[in-house]
Design a protein that fits this description.
7-stranded mixed β-sheet; 18 strands; single chain; binds nicotinamide-adenine-dinucleotide
């Protein structure tokens, strides 16, 4: 069976691909299993060299990969270039991490206790369609660094950059069978990976709904699981914040990638005393977002990923919003930047929209802000805007989320841990923390008694 990959900005087909089924999945797992002993035995310095070569190849192919990602996801090309730049940095980082992932010696009676970091074996990587190459690299980098072999399953809608990355792995000299890219349905290929007895771990990024299925399926073989799931993050603006800066930045923290971002600050919490002023600034700043052809260097927001997804996003906007921007009326799954007023009980404030719709929610004081920010099943990211350093720290400690920023709206850095609290998942990607998710600690005691 084949399926057609579309350009969401034009609705035109850009590829026709064979879909893998259960049989092909089993074959890929078998190839990865066979490649594992040799790959895990590669000397750390040599494995680092291969990953560094991969990083360099990604750098050399930045424009090609960025164009693939832009056409397949509808991402503005300037953002896509930045994302591919990060993919290269991720591989450089984990090339450098390989010989710094130390074990320990532990004082014990009668001998020496030491720990070793052992690879897991074959790891299944299941990734979503919103940041396909980026999120694949967050998993591939540490998985390969630790000596695992992988089967990577991109999302049905956006497989093209993963296929190209797989080719670059081979070109870099990473042996056949170490990285296997499988294009196919989540319910078939993904499900088989989750249940396969020879897959040691599933690293999953996607919706909380499918994350639940991953946990359930993995229980049969006590598979290791890390889950990066949905979010409903709060952007908390206090009256003492630099309102101009906060308002200039807020639209990009929710409309970037057309809102299809697990870290989107889609709940903007504003202190009542500055509510009207902030709203004015926010709307003004949102008007400045350039929506249109993703291939244009100046474009800041492209279309949504599919017609079905556009329908879901539209279902969140009932009645007249506070603001609705412009969007092309040509073919493509366009949706305008939209700002609505809400209470935290409204559907728009409780569920992940995953589109360019922001809910603005007023709050009274610090206690009220904490209460609203935490009143969600999710806990991925968020921001705090205030000039009071002590308040910033109190808020950062009080908000139940894995990744927070103060007077900024960033969530992701190559060297810092990324992941969620509560139903946003568990396990950490990026930084040295990610290596924990791709290795087991082995404790060995050596008697020194004669
Ligand atoms: P999704 O859960 O529908 O799909 C994610 C992946 O899982 C895809 O590759 C899909 O094919 C696969 N899949 C689907 N059903 C499956 C099944 N039954 N068994 C195994 N695999 C299956 O998510 P999506 O729509 O592609 O992506 C959007 C979601 O991803 C949002 O909820 C978003 O918040 C989340 N996300 C989270 C992060 C994070 O790091 N926390 C990052 C990006 C996206």
């Amino acid at each position: 069976m084949t399926f057609t990959v579309l350009n969401p900005a034009t609705e035109e087909p850009i590829a026709e691909l064979e879909q893998a089924g259960v049989e092909e999945t089993d074959e890929a797992v078998a190839r990865a299993k066979e490649a594992f002993p040799a790959w895990s035995a590669v000397a750390p310095g040599d494995r680092a060299r291969l990953l560094r070569r991969l990083a360099t190849l990604v750098e050399e192919h930045t424009e090609e990969l960025a164009r693939i990602e832009s056409r397949n996801v509808g991402k503005p090309i300037s953002g896509a270039r930045g994302e591919i730049g990060m993919v290269a940095q991720v591989f450089h980082y984990y090339a450098g991490a390989i010989d710094k992932h130390f074990g320990e010696t532990i004082p014990v009676a009668g001998g020496v206790a030491a720990t070793f970091r052992e690879p897991l074996g074959v790891v299944g990587l299941i990734v979503p369609w919103n940041f396909p190459a980026n999120i694949a690299s967050w998993k591939l980098g540490p998985a390969l660094a630790c000596g695992n072999t992988v089967v990577l399953k991109p999302a049905e809608l956006t497989p093209l950059s993963a296929i190209r990355l797989g080719e670059l792995c081979l070109e870099a000299g990473i042996p056949e069978g170490v990285v296997n890219v499988l294009v196919g349905k989540g319910s078939i290929v993904g499900q088989r990976l989750i249940e396969h007895p020879d897959v040691a771990k599933i690293a999953f990024t996607g919706s909380t709904e499918v994350g639940r299925l991953v946990m359930q399926g993995a229980a049969g073989t006590i598979k290791r699981v890390t889950l990066e799931l949905g979010g409903k993050s709060a952007n908390v603006i206090f009256e003492d914040a630099d309102l101009e800066r906060a308002a200039a930045s807020a639209p990009y923290s929710v409309f970037d990638n057309a809102g299809q971002d697990c870290c989107a600050r889609s709940r903007i919490l504003v202190q009542k005393s500055v509510y009207d002023r902030f709203l004015e600034l926010l709307i003004e700043a949102t008007k400045g977002i350039k929506v249109g052809d993703p291939a244009d260097d100046a474009t800041e927001m492209g279309p949504l990923i599919s017609a079905a997804h556009r329908e879901t996003v539209a279902s969140f906007v009932n009645g007249e919003p506070l603001f609705r921007g412009d969007a092309p009326d040509s073919p493509g799954f366009w949706f305008p930047c939209t700002i609505v007023e809400a209470t935290n009980d409204d559907r728009i404030a409780r569920e992940e929209v995953f589109g360019p719709v922001a809910a603005v929610i007023p709050f009274e004081d610090e206690a009220d802000a904490i209460c609203i920010a935490n009143d969600t099943p999710y806990g991925l990211s968020g921001s705090i805007w205030t000039q009071d350093g002590a308040r910033a720290l109190r808020m950062a400690r009080a908000i139940e989320a894995g990744v927070l920023s103060v007077n900024a709206n960033t969530s992701v850095r190559v060297s810092t841990p990324f992941g969620g609290f509560k139903q946003s998942g568990f396990g950490r990607e990026l930084g040295m923390h990610a290596l924990e998710g791709y290795s087991e600690i082995k404790s060995v005691f050596i008697s020194t008694e004669s």
